[in-house]
């Protein structure tokens, strides 16, 4: 049987991202003054997990051949909301978490409804909704502030059994509870099919609209989990425009690094997670090598360009030049 | 088969696309346990008919009866539910998904709300085996399979849906002979299991081997139904033609055989599996037609001349000298002077939101500008000439070209290229979807350009046009030139016979009276 070869081909993007991450992270920890310690891993994972959630959110939408330029703003909005609601007694905190996640889901659902039923292009629709979400975030938190249930925050950003970063455990749980069921459900397959060839999917009687809607809505939910973690990490809410935009753009970079095709239909959220972790580590590498932080954007940009160029090699094989434009 | 209760009946089905009648009160009934062949030439309405049956297109009028009660299908999914499954000519497979994913895509097996991959694998393996394609691995991605294997997956996918009525639209066109034999075995077995099969094909020998019942379509109507084998090939061709010949074509000049070197020549052009050793010549002042069924390599041949295809083998000669045409920009350059009027004017010919003026001058900007600055006066003069020459009806030069009628849009595409005064003009089915009046103007124009010395290569799916416009016609079949028809040899009968790859010699002379 050569089943494993098909599996390998399917997971190539994910494995490549995993490889890049491992190499980067090894370089990082071996040059870190403290070395490979639980503390270093915990800090890295807390930072990485934020982008990982947003990248997962982006993946779901990109799979349908769409793009969500509002993920960063949903992330910011839910951060601001959490800094009001995720506080107080256990019951109150639980209610707050549910409300924050529900808000993210709603934001994603609105995106999906506009794109699918309003037939607007995803790029335009999500720029507009992103601005709206940021506007609401700004009303919630005109100035940075607020607070969060610190017991919960410390538990989820700390370590389990003294070694395992809790944030990584949560990330794993989200993968198992959201991504795995989605990718193996009929809706998930509909999302992939719609992204790969919407016409063929329609001809085959696939529930395209429901699949795409689910992808957008779950994308909102995942961005909200990211926003929640940002609150746990910083103890405050901050409607920071630059940070929201940066997360949106970084999520696209992470998705591409993770082997998810921007043309849709191909890739996995797990790849995007490693893409996100690798992308974060690229930034951190500069610190251990004592580079001026001013170099960081330039360095990240170059690495990203190289990674993306790898995907362009397929164009050399095209024999009908008109296919370049499809 | 007479007297058997029809499983499915279509009555008085009509469908129009804009002003074009695709179906006109068409009737069809299929009975269980039989293979029903549907025949007709390009544009006879066969494709629309099965699209209506499969729920892709809603008919304007008429009704469909399944098991004696009326049904309507809002979507392909609804038709599937009713047991009608169609294997389309354009494949309906999702390229990035695996074979198994694709086979179960309409109704995947589920376990705890998730897709049961083991069951999916089993269903896929069974379906592939039933289709005689057990060599295809269920985990392979569809996009990695060659076309013939994809077609087999398509058939397996249809079988996995347990159809009562299976429609095959040119389903064997991409298959190898060995696969065709396998598929025929499968189809005959399905017939004996009581399925109703609808088989659309241009290949007469396939129909002779498979069909129990045949229906011929012409101009959107079913013109004849007969028991398979009760009519000869010639009678069938006769039924498929039966159109009135319209005298809208300009007279052809009486020509002496060309002595000068041809302007455009191809020697042994081959490209992937679409072009097979094509050699041809087009002389100055000559209109050479490309005939044959849709999709036999005509489009690729034109693209090959225009520098779009990579990895082309063989030689292209201009004025007797070999040239390498690396891109459309090189093809249109002064040395070669070629123009291609594309088939799909909306995507390949025009920028719809831009103005008539901008569209007209795009291809000629390099000739109209000096040091990168456009000479507006020269542009205006040339545009005025073209609008006059082609009688383009537009409210103004500065309105979006998308606001014009289809015929006038096509005139803009042609005018755009004429602004470069090309010596070689390639036309890819230029009259598709435009009105008769404009067609007539284009025929006149084509002849006028030829008389002025242009070499014209003209692909058309409309046999009347080839007969009326061309000095010679090359009929393509499976990427190769099957037959060359010169002057009075260009008859509808000869065109259809060679397009179907039937030998012309078998055609009785008594039928050849319409030229």
From TrEMBL, chain A:
GO CC entries: plasma membrane
Superkingdom to which the source organism belongs: Bacteria
Coiled coil regions, renumbered to chain: none
Principal location: membrane
InterPro entries according to UniProt: ABC_transp_permease
Keywords, comma-separated and alphabetical: Cell membrane, Membrane, Transmembrane, Transmembrane helix
The keyword Endoplasmic reticulum belongs to this UniProt entry's keyword annotation: no
Molecular function via GO: transmembrane transporter activity
Membrane topology value: Multi-pass membrane protein
Annotated localization: Cell membrane
Membrane spanning residue stretches: 12-29, 49-67, 74-91, 97-116, 123-140, 160-180, 213-234, 246-263, 270-289, 295-316
Name this protein carries in UniProt: Putative sugar ABC transporter, permease protein ribose ABC transporter rbsC-like
Organism: Mesorhizobium prunaredense
TrEMBL record, chain B:
UniProt EC number: 3.6.3.17
Record domain ABC transporter: where: 8-244, 258-503
Gene3D superfamilies to which the protein is assigned, alphabetical: P-loop containing nucleotide triphosphate hydrolases (3.40.50.300)
Keywords in alphabetical order: ATP-binding, Cell membrane, Hydrolase, Membrane, Nucleotide-binding, Repeat, Sugar transport, Translocase, Transport
InterPro entries xref list: AAA+_ATPase (IPR003593), ABC_carbohydrate_import_ATPase (IPR050107), ABC_transporter-like_ATP-bd (IPR003439), ABC_transporter-like_CS (IPR017871), P-loop_NTPase (IPR027417)
Annotated membrane topology: Peripheral membrane protein
Keyword Transmembrane helix: no
GO CC list: plasma membrane
Hydrolase in keyword set: yes
Location of this chain's protein in the cell: Cell membrane
SMART domains xrefs: AAA
Main location: membrane
Molecular function as annotated in GO: ATP binding; ATP hydrolysis activity
Family listed: Belongs to the ABC transporter superfamily.
Descriptive protein name: Ribose import ATP-binding protein RbsA 1
Organism: Mesorhizobium prunaredense
Designated gene of the protein: rbsA
């Amino acid at each position: 049987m050569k089943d494993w070869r098909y599996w390998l081909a399917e997971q190539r993007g994910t494995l490549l991202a995993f490889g890049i991450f491992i190499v980067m992270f090894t370089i990082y920890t071996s040059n870190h003054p403290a070395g490979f310690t639980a503390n270093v891993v915990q800090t890295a994972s807390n930072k990485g997990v934020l982008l990982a959630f947003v990248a997962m959110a982006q993946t779901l939408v990109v799979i349908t051949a769409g793009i969500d330029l509002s993920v960063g703003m949903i992330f910011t909005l839910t951060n601001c909301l959490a800094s009001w609601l995720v506080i107080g007694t256990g019951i109150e905190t639980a209610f707050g978490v549910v409300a924050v996640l529900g808000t993210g889901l709603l934001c994603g659902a609105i995106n999906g409804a506009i794109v699918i039923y309003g037939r607007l292009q995803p790029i335009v629709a999500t720029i507009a909704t992103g601005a709206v979400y940021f506007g609401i975030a700004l009303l919630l938190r005109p100035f940075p502030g607020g607070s969060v249930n610190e017991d919960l925050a410390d538990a989820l950003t700390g370590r389990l059994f003294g070694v395992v970063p809790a944030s990584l455990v949560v990330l794993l749980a989200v993968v198992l509870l959201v991504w795995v069921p989605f990718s193996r459900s009929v809706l998930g397959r509909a999302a992939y099919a719609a992204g790969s060839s919407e016409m063929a999917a329609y001809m085959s009687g696939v529930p395209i609209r429901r699949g795409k809607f689910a992808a957008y809505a779950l994308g909102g939910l995942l961005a909200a989990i990211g926003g929640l973690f940002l609150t746990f990490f910083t103890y405050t809410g901050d409607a920071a425009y630059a940070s929201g935009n940066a997360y949106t753009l970084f999520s696209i970079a992470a998705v591409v690094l993770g082997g998810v095709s921007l043309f849709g239909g191909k890739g996995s959220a797990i790849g995007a997670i490693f893409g996100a972790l690798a992308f974060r580590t690229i930034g951190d590498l500069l610190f251990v090598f004592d580079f001026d932080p001013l170099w960081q954007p330039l360095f990240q940009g170059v690495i990203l360009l190289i990674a993306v160029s790898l995907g362009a090699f397929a164009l050399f094989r095209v024999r009908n030049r008109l296919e370049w434009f499809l | 088969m007479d007297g058997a209760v029809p499983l499915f009946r279509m009555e008085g089905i009509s469908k129009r696309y804009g002003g074009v009648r695709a179906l006109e009160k068409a009737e069809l009934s299929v009975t269980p346990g039989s293979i029903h062949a549907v025949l007709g030439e390009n544009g006879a309405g066969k494709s629309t008919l099965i699209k209506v049956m499969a729920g892709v297109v809603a008919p304007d009028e008429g009704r469909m009866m399944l098991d004696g009660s009326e049904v309507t299908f809002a979507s392909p999914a609804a038709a599937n539910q009713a047991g009608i499954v169609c294997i389309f000519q354009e494949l309906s497979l999702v390229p990035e998904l695996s074979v198994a994913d694709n086979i179960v895509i309409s109704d995947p097996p589920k376990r705890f709300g998730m897709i049961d991959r083991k069951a999916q694998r089993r269903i896929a393996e069974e379906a592939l085996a039933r289709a005689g394609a057990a060599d295809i691995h269920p985990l392979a991605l569809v996009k990695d399979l060659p076309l013939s294997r994809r077609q087999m997956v398509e058939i397996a996918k249809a079988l996995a849906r347990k159809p009562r009525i299976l429609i095959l639209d040119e389903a064997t066109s991409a298959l190898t002979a060995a696969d065709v034999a396998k598929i025929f075995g499968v189809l005959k077995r399905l017939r004996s299991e009581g399925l109703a099969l609808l088989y659309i094909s241009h290949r007469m020998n396939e129909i002779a081997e498979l069909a129990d019942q045949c229906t011929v379509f012409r101009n959107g109507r079913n013109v004849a139904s007969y028991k398979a084998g009760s009519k000869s090939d010639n009678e069938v061709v006769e039924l498929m033609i039966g159109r009135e010949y319209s005298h809208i074509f300009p007279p052809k000049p009486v020509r002496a055989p060309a002595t000068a070197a041809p302007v455009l020549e191809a020697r042994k052009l081959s490209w992937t599996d679409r072009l097979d050793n094509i050699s041809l010549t087009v002389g100055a002042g000559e209109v050479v037609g490309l005939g044959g069924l849709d999709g036999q390599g005509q489009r690729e041949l034109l693209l090959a001349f225009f520098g779009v295809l990579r990895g082309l083998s063989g030689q292209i000669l201009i004025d007797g000298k070999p040239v390498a045409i690396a891109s459309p920009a090189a093809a249109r350059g002064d040395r070669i002077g070629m123009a291609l009027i594309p088939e799909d004017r909306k995507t390949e010919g025009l920028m719809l939101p831009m103005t008539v003026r901008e569209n007209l001058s795009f291809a000629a900007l390099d000739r109209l500008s000096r040091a990168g600055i456009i000479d507006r006066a020269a542009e205006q003069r040339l545009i005025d000439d073209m609008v006059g020459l082609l009688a383009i009806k537009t409210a103004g030069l500065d309105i979006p070209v998308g606001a014009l009628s289809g015929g006038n849009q096509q005139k803009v595409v042609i005018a755009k290229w004429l602004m470069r005064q090309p010596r070689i003009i390639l036309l890819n089915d230029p009259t598709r979807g435009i009105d008769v009046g404009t067609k007539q103007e284009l025929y006149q124009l084509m002849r006028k350009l030829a008389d002025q010395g242009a070499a014209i290569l003209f692909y058309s799916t409309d046999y009347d046009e080839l007969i009326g416009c061309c000095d010679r016609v090359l009929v393509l079949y499976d990427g190769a030139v099957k037959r060359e028809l010169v002057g009075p040899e260009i008859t509808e009968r000869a065109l259809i016979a060679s397009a179907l790859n039937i030998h012309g010699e078998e055609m009785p002379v008594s039928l050849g009276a319409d030229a």
